Amino acid sequence: MRVAVIKNSGNMDTKIDRILKNNKINGDIIQKFTKNSLNMYDTIIFTYQNNIPNISKVIEQIVLEKKVLVIFINNKLSVGQFYNILNNLYFSIVNDQTLDVGLPSILNNSGKYIKEISFLNDELFSLKERLNTTNLINNAKRILSNKGYNEAESHQFIQKKSMDLRLSKKLTAQLIIENKIDF
Questions:
Q1: DSSP 8-state assignment for residue 182
Q2: For the segment 137-149, what is each residue's pLDDT rounded down to a tens digit?
Q3: Cα(88)–Cα(143) distance, rounded to whole angstroms?
Q4: Is 23 left (phi over 0), alpha (psi -120 to 50) or beta?
Q5: Same domain? 6 vs 58
Q6: Residue 20 placed within a domain
């Protein structure tokens, strides 16, 4: 897990850096926050000491659009500015008084859950693609059956056309549905 700590003007940077090193977590203190930071790091830590205009909107955009874990270190109990993302998996708030315990706990636990959710999202995407392909092929078979082909002949026709045209069965089925293949 790669962690970026957005540099601030207080001694919070050294405290966070010490906590990360004590827990063997790779972390960098970066001067400026850029869009490249989102691609390079798994987690970004902001503090109440950061001088970023509209920090709550910036954090909200990162959490909702980029799906990068954001940890906000706060010195107050008030969290109203984060009402849109308060219960989001990719957002956590740690009080600076409990930072020594809270930060490592969030990094270790959230990282595990986020990896598992990413894996499950990839699996879901793959399954949706397979279902879409199966539905397209079935629709193409239905069209072929209306033209007099039986199930086995429809299947053979799609396979042969796919090989002849050097296309996937999905694309071949799409072309059959769009009536762009002679049969």
A1: -
A2: 999 999 999 999 9
A3: 45
A4: alpha
A5: yes
A6: yes
Reported as a single tens digit per residue, the pLDDT across 61-94 is 998 888 889 999 998 877 788 888 988 888 999 9
CA distance 133 to 176: 13
**Within a domain: residue 183?**
no
172 shares a domain with 111: no
CA distance 72 to 70: 6
| Beta-carbon contacts of residue 142 (< 8 Å; ≥ 6 apart) | none
- Across the range 51-69, mean pLDDT stands at 88
Does some domain include residue 78? yes
Q: Which residues contact 66 (CB under 8 A, 6 or more apart)?
A: 38
Pair (28, 101) in one structural domain = yes
Model confidence pLDDT, tens digit, residues 13-42: 889 999 999 988 888 888 877 777 778 888
Crossing angle, helix 99-146 and helix 12-22, to 10 degrees?
A: 70
Q: What would you report as the CA-atom Rg of the chain, rounded to the nearest whole angstrom?
A: 26
Whether residue 172 is contained in a domain is answered as yes
- Tokens coding 39: 């691609």
Q: Which helix (H) or strand (E) holds 114?
A: helix 99-146
Q: Read off φ and ψ for residue 145, nearest 5 degrees.
A: -70, -30
